[in-house]
Design the sequence.
């Protein structure tokens, strides 16, 4: 049985760091690399960069981390989406390793 993953997409890098900090303090989780996305309608958004924060651990800790992180993000610029996947498939695991911050 694999680890759960919590995925939180927020507006902006500063918000992502603040949300990640809150999530890590709320549960016994490991933080994975952030990912970024600049959507086609970026100029219409309050912050033109979407950042995804990923937490790993057991389901209860990941849920606690996502809850705390989303609460903190909503105090700042806001949450786009949030999800917990209790036991990701191998194919999903491969995709979770991709991130746009690695690109030049």
Sequence:
């Amino acid at each position: 049985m694999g680890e759960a993953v919590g995925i939180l997409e927020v507006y902006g890098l500063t918000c992502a760091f603040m949300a990640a900090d809150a999530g890590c303090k709320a549960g016994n989780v490991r933080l994975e690399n952030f990912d970024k996305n600049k959507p086609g309608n970026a100029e219409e958004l309050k912050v033109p960069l979407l950042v995804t924060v990923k937490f790993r651990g057991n389901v209860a800790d990941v849920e606690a981390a996502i809850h705390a992180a989303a609460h903190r993000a909503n105090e700042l610029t806001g949450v786009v989406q949030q999800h917990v996947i209790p036991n990701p498939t191998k194919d999903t695991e491969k995709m979770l390793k991709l991130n746009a911050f690695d690109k030049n």
